[in-house]
Amino acid sequence: MKAVALTHYLPIDDPNSLIDIELKKPHPIGRDLLVAVKAIAVNPVDYKVREPNDGNRNTVETPPKVLGWDAAGVVEAVGPEVTLFKPGDEVFYAGDITRQGANCEFHLIDERIVGSKPASQGFAQAAAFPLTSITAYEAFFERLGIDIDGGNAGETILIVGGAGGVGSIAIQLAKIAGLTVITTASRPETSEWVKRLGADHVINHRQPLRPQIEKIGLKYVDYIALFNDTDGHWPAAVDLIRPQGHIVTIVENNEPLEQSGMKLKAATFSWEFMFTRSMYQTPDMIEQHRLLNRIAAWIDAGRIQVTASDVMSPINAANLRAAHATLEAGRSIGKIVIEGWQ
């Protein structure tokens, strides 16, 4: 089968950073599905795993390492313990970072972290949703404890990085929950994007946040989601979170995060990492299956808009290198999707 992989960890401008290869078609066992991949999406985790660092610079991957943690496709075959799907079912999922990724024609994935593809969407549009939807859903409804059914309606959330992949879904989920959404964007095109997705207020994360929040008429916000530069935005987040409020981040920090202000406010801080359940095989892994099905139902009901902003074809190393380069440069809006094999 065709695949795009790496053998060495290289800068994206090196043509060998991602290469076209042939791999043996895998066979499902246990609770695995074998999925014929029709479309993939690209996320920051892809380039963060691929880029060279002190720990991997001299590593040679044998067999080659396949990246890719967003896919939509058709179930080709199932393992003997599978109960949720059958061959021919159309599915979408984000995958498991501890296994080979989805940038291949046929991919093995545990059924408990797979959802039924939204019937109203093609494979390319569906592939844009899983990783960002799981991340935003878990961040809001599990980490922050927001009531998905509107129990916190009218409360405020500040989303730092609203025009990215996770932010684009998060805005919409926050509106479904009835929150007042303040999000950041720094360019005219990104500001327009987040407004179209439902943001109530847009402020610029390249300028001091407090004066902009006060201009809206607020002193504090109830929740803060850091989807960009945790280190850089941490002081402002601690300043703006209400006493007994809650901050969540998905972006690793490089410096210690000062906690004295959090202590004085008795505020809570949480991490969200959507691979935790599959990485540790937690007893509640199947919750990702259930939440993806809920996301699909909302998409089919028109409550969530498509976030695929750039669809490329075919799936090959050249297009994946271009997508990685765009993400690394911070130029993307929404999600980059690649569909079809040649």
From TrEMBL:
Compartments in which it is found: Cytoplasm
Chief place of localization: cytoplasm
Species per Swiss-Prot/TrEMBL record: Aureliella helgolandensis
Domain Enoyl reductase (ER): 13-338
Official protein name in the record: Zinc-type alcohol dehydrogenase-like protein
A GO cellular component annotation in the UniProt record: cytoplasm
UniProt cross-references to Pfam families, sorted A to Z: ADH_N (PF08240), ADH_zinc_N_2 (PF13602)
GO molecular function: oxidoreductase activity; RNA binding; zinc ion binding
Residues in coiled coil: none
Assigned keywords, A-Z: Cytoplasm, Metal-binding, NADP, Oxidoreductase, RNA-binding, Zinc
